[in-house]
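DM from R.C. (forwarded with permission)

"hey, sorry to bug you on a friday — could you get me a structure for this? deadline for the figure draft is monday and I only need the backbone to look sensible"
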Amino acid sequence: MRFQGILSLLVLVLHTTAATPASPNQINFELSPNESSHQWSEMGGLRLISTSEDHREWMNAEQILGLIRNKKNFVDVTEGYLDALDTLKPLAKLGRVVLQWAEGRPPPTDVKHQGLVVPILKMISEASMERFLTKFSSFNTRYYLSRSGLASTNWLYSQIKQLLVKHRSRHYKASVRLVKHNFPQPSIIVRIEPVSDDPNVSIDSNPIVIVGSHHDSVSSLDPMNGRAPGADDDGSGTTTIFEALRVILESKVLDPRSGWSKPIEYHWYAAEEAGLLGSQAVAAEYRQKDVNVYAMWQCDMTGYTSPNNEAVISLIGDYADPSFNDFVKKLARSYSKLRAEMEKRTTGYGGSDHFSWTMAGYAAVWPFEAPFNISNRYVHTTNDSVANINFSHMTEFVKTIIGWTIELSFD
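My reply, with the result:
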């Protein structure tokens, strides 16, 4: 929970027709465990850490660990990913209220694609989610500098590749890319874009609909070696968006003939727990390239419910777009058993990867598993395990994310 520069990309492109030929290192790409030999000293010794909009401080590893232990939000700004965008940012009031970019589009006024969404919601499988999350949380830790953090990334990447290979279609082009950073763990991006039979139809200028999560985890006792199953933080978000993508592809709902016109992207970010490093790099590159993004949903923690309290979707107000938060309320009413309500507390600076997109000037939201005061107290410990996950609760998030994807990407 919680680059400027050229990103190295590894892309696997899939079609109903023969897949685009790829070099052996693309198809067989694996992360070598030896790459995890990067130690803190190789990462620069001290890191520039921001804990608010007006406070930055150079910190060593132990000081940063103290922030994690105290559950203090922070952003690692050493690389200057978002600082490089300062000249691009319009005047905006950040915090509880965020103004969209001048070219930003408001969300739809109403939910209108129930005929496409409702029939496919029955395809959601809690058993599949439990199997996926059980395996994903079995790695000792998914910490971004650890060997098991690389192994978990390999496993996740392999599951995504298999999903795209299994569900090829002539109606879309699907790709998955590993975004390599200047630390061992990469981020993962899936892109599904419409392919029309009409040669006069172009989607090149259409905005992208994004759903994201982070795939790393951390132990507050020993980040590099301590057991950090991260079943909820953020194994639940990783599993939730994988299941939403699986259902969308398996249902064959993505068809330009039915009004689908906008590309969709599902992102799994590296190193969120280390200060939003992966998402900062990705969001900054999108802004530098002036990538047209409709809106971004950050799926960070969806699996915990507090006993004796009403289960809800808690909408984070900090560094989030209010109009799209309102739209999530409409989605929840249409597609979920849960009520979506605004978080009453200030969650603060740098809470999760939606922050990176907001600071890059894009509309972003972070619908959370519960009000913060009754959310999962086991995060960053060995008890953040599958035993404490409510898969029925996760299912309601899957439903709403499917709704988000279809409602925003269809005309």
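R.C.: lifesaver. The first helix runs from residue 24 to 27.
me: no worries. The chain has a mean pLDDT of 87.
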